[in-house]
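Dear Dr. L.,

I hope this message finds you well. Following up on our conversation about the binding site, I have prepared a predicted three-dimensional model of the protein together with UFG. For your records, I am including the exact sequence and ligand specification that went into the calculation, followed by the structure tokens. Please feel free to forward this to your student if that is useful.
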Amino acid sequence: MQEAGYEVVIIDDLSNSELFVLDRITEITGTKPEFHQIDLKDENLVNEFFKSNKIEGVIHFAAHKAVGESVQKPLMYHKNNLMGLLNVLEAMKENEIDHFIFSSSCTVYGQADKMPIDENAPIKKAESPYAKTKQMGEEILEDFVAAFDKNVISLRYFNPVGAHPSALIGELPKGVPNNLVPFVTQTAAGIREFLSVFGSDYPTRDGTAIRDYIYVCDLADAHVKALTRLIQKENKSNLEVFNLGTGIGSTVLEVVKSFEKVNDLKLNYKLVDRRAGDIIEAFADNSKAEKELGWKPETPLEESMRTAWEWQKGLS
Ligand code: UFG
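The resulting structure of the complex is given below.
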């Protein structure tokens, strides 16, 4: 956003992030973003923030985001993801802020019947509490735009992966990683003994689950385009949704192989049981984002795997 000329203010509770990121962003962009440590569940603090800052638009990333963990801790997921959202929307209403970008997820489709998944695919039963929070989030937004004449774009991410090409910013989950790629890089670095590949009996080409791994910097570009679209009033309805994926499905083993090949190393892994809450397959039809947002992912999986490893190496 900063590179696109926006002045950025970050709110984060630091529950799954690190303050040093601010210096890294400064190194990359030449500007240090303003930062406020606020837990979005604290309604008063959130409202206070929006009252005392002139904000033109909100990009709401903040949420717990691990499918498996959400099955174990559903209340934590509902509380954090929905209260946070509600408090931000309330503050937007109170302080007359019009533009909102929502980090949604392809998990809102449940196990879709048809691949690739386009935005008209039915919203089926969610397979995990995490997915439910994203479905409910979108429903809340539907009511929000209708009642208060606000403009929202919901971006349904497929699986974001990789790190900034500078290797200065990337994924650093606290504790044991839940997501595939940080687990892969930590295994390669010797922090984890082996990667558990969850499920090898799925009806796919090699028995492991299929996802659409989208490079994080490509994903970031879509946010710039989405917010700009709202600010320039180019949106076609008050609530638009876009799938953000590459259109290519990769199995877990293909991700492992790509990582091994591009980084010239061997990864320890074991095939284990399926993980609760997982779907078999999801990859995007991203043609609506291309047509409407002028967004097209540019980066192949190998490059994501290379940058993810560069970032991991830089941590040790
Ligand atoms: N997997 C493993 N071993 C691991 C971790 C994951 O085999 O240690 C497998 C999973 O079973 C799944 C695939 O790798 O088949 C991807 O799993 P992730 O946990 O990385 O990602 P998910 O598809 O479960 O969900 C992710 C994010 C969500 C996001 C969703 C789609 O966690 O935040 O993609 O947007 F919403």
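In brief: The first helix runs from residue 20 to 29.

With kind regards,
A. P.
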